[in-house]
Amino acid sequence: LLEEVGNDMASRTAWEGLTLEASLTTTATESQGAITTIASNGYRYMKNGTIWSRTRRLPVCGPLDAQEWQQLKAMFVNGPYYRYRMRGGELLVNPTPPAGEDWYFEYVTKFWILGADGVTYKEFFTLDTDTILIPESVLLMGLRAWWKKEKGFDYAEDMRMYESQVKE
User: Fold this and answer.
1) Residues 60, 52: contact at Cβ < 8 Å?
2) Which of 44, 125, 153, 167 has a Cα-to-Cα distance from 58 of 20 to 30 A?
């Protein structure tokens, strides 16, 4: 039940503890690869406006929607700003960057548990010494409400309090 509540919380709000940083070294192709490979710790979504080329010290603009991307592709566009779009789980960039630039961005992970090693992010507990990355007080509030519901007790007020804290 605790894992169900934790997964619910992690899927609905970008808690501070769920924000991570990823980096990539660009390739000289439009597709920079699968975003889940680039941001490998349970990628849920990228925080807009956070991709920066640390090589050029310039932002990478985006995300572009389908119409903006197609318009960009139909025109001749040449730097200094790169633009990106997420499509089919891939990070697409235009114009094509040179190989070897260092880009960084922030993203929100779906993994709300940090392993005892302090490095491994995960969705489910495997050790008693694992820690949580979401607010403990809200997690316990949700656990109380969901437990009461499972047991057939009156849970409406507890659930209302939990929902007001999670705020989709």
Assistant:
1) yes
2) 44
Tens-of-pLDDT digits for all 168 residues of the chain?
999 999 999 999 999 999 999 999 999 999 999 999 999 999 999 999 999 999 999 999 999 999 999 999 998 777 789 999 999 999 999 999 999 999 999 999 999 999 999 999 999 999 999 999 999 999 999 999 999 999 999 999 999 999 999 986
- Which DSSP category does 152 fall into? T
How far, CA to CA in Å, does 126 sit from each of 50, 82, 120, 138?
Answer: 32, 42, 11, 21
| Contact (CB, 8 A) for 79 and 57 | no
Nearest to 91 by CA among 155, 43, 161: 43
- Three-state DSSP at 32 gives strand
Separation CA 83–CA 72 (nearest Å): 9
* Cα 109 to chain centroid, rounded: 4
Q: Which of 131, 114, 130 is nearest to 122 (CA)?
A: 114
